[in-house]
Design a protein that fits this description.
Helices cover 28% and strands 16% of the residues. The protein is α/β, with parallel strands linked by helices. The protein has 2 domains: 208 residues, DHBP synthase (Alpha-Beta Complex); 114 residues, no CATH class. The strands form 2 sheets. A 10-stranded mixed sheet has the order 1-8-2-3-7-4-6-5-9-10, with helices on both faces. Helix 1 crosses helix 5. The protein binds adenosine monophosphate and magnesium ion. Adenosine monophosphate binds next to strand 6.
């Protein structure tokens, strides 16, 4: 069912309008430092149901609740659990910021069952932009907000991206300008006896290491084995498709100079073999290949901020220019050490290249 989608700014009057819509159970896209979120009242099963419908998100996939400050967020967690002290320490160190914590739910938590998919745990975060925290304070309730894109697609980094994904499926979009970080929050599970990294993000294992050291260190499950580093598409069923452009994505390998025209995602100053010069951030080369350099100086923070915009742009331009696929850097080029920012780049590209039609677990 289509509805009119209002575009709101971040002035006081507009934030009051957005807050009233959220309190009334409507969907409102909100800016965060990571990506734009599709917000709804996290205390209302009905409002959260709207998120799943608008995104086409499977209902077993829980949502992250957003708060204006750490005190409000941690009040939803149990008063006592083994890693409570660590949660408080990480909140002081990284909030507001791109870190989500999974914690045991307080028996009196207001977060609805649908937001947490019926789990005994909840995921909480305090986002960075002051206007967003002002909005959250005005609403006075936690706001569930997964990325404001259709399920399995590329996360939105600006209000226009949200319009392209969800126009007519939500009441309003708060335009807070481009999301500076550009990749989703790091998720750390603190509900057990030891901290566990559930999703890599802008806060890296190296950043978390010191705080986690006294709790047995940060465990992180290795990603599913993949043939994609060797330049082939991964085997079906191995991986979860997500963050996916419509063009197939191939990781690493040689650019095909004769056959299929390729859209090129580049990283760093080195030129792919046999190709001309690709100076600058993006363009179309003499052979008609669109190219986008994540970071010509191989800066991984810049690469994070340019990843989703690059996937979107290459997808559109690649299709327009007749490309048959998108070629991205090999994962080990992006992520040589497994503890820094390369981890998040490799994670998102691994999913973008995963076989389509698998059931996504996170969107
Ligand atoms: P997003 O799609 O960015 O909102 O991220 C939601 C992701 O957070 C889910 O797909 C889960 O991976 C994770 N998550 C949220 N709540 C929980 C929870 N209670 N327990 C474990 N993971 C959670
Ligand atoms: Mg998402």
């Amino acid at each position: 069912m289509s509805q009119q989608t209002r575009l709101l700014q971040t002035d006081n009057a507009s934030l009051h309008v957005a807050a009233a819509l959220l309190q009334a159970g409507q969907l409102v896209a909100i800016p965060t430092e990571t990506v734009y979120g599709l917000g709804a009242d996290a205390t209302s099963d009905q409002a959260c149901a709207g998120i799943y419908t608008a995104k086409g998100r499977p209902s077993h996939n829980p949502l992250i609740s957003h708060f204006p400050h750490a005190t409000a967020a941690l009040a939803e967690a149990r008063d006592h659990f083994p890693l409570r002290r660590l949660a408080e320490q990480l909140a002081r160190q990284f909030w507001p910021g791109p870190l989500t914590m999974v914690v045991p739910r307080h028996p009196q938590s207001n977060i609805c069952q649908r937001a947490s998919a019926g789990l005994p745990t909840i995921a909480v975060r305090v986002p960075a932009p002051p206007a967003t925290r002002q909005l959250l304070a005005l609403v006075g309730r936690p706001i569930a907000a997964p990325s404001a894109n259709r399920s399995g697609r590329i996360s939105p980094l600006c209000a226009q991206d949200v319009q392209a994904e969800l126009q007519g499926r939500l009441a309003a979009i708060v335009d807070g300008g481009p999301a500076p970080v550009g990749v989703e929050s790091t998720i750390i599970d603190l509900s057990g006896d030891h901290p566990l990294l559930l999703r890599p993000g802008f806060i890296t294992p190296a950043d978390l290491e010191e705080a986690c050291a006294t709790y047995g260190g940060l465990a992180h499950p290795a990603p599913a084995a993949s043939a994609s580093d060797k330049g082939t598409l991964t085997a079906p069923g191995q991986l979860t498709s997500h963050y996916a452009p419509t063009l197939p994505v191939v990781l690493g390998g040689q650019v095909n100079l004769q056959g299929t025209l390729e859209a090129l995602l580049l990283f760093g100053p080195d030129e792919p073999d046999g190709l001309g010069v690709h100076a600058g951030l993006q363009g179309v080369d003499q052979q008609g290949r669109p190219w986008w350099n994540l970071s010509p100086k191989a800066d991984r923070a810049q690469a994070c901020s340019r990843l989703y915009a690059g996937l979107r742009w290459l997808d559109v331009e690649g299709r327009r220019l007749g490309c048959g696929l998108m070629r991205a850097p090999a994962l080990n080029v992006l992520d040589p050490d497994k503890t820094g920012l390369g981890l998040v780049l490799a994670d998102r590209l691994r999913r973008a290249a995963a076989p389509r039609g698998t059931t996504p677990t996170s969107r």
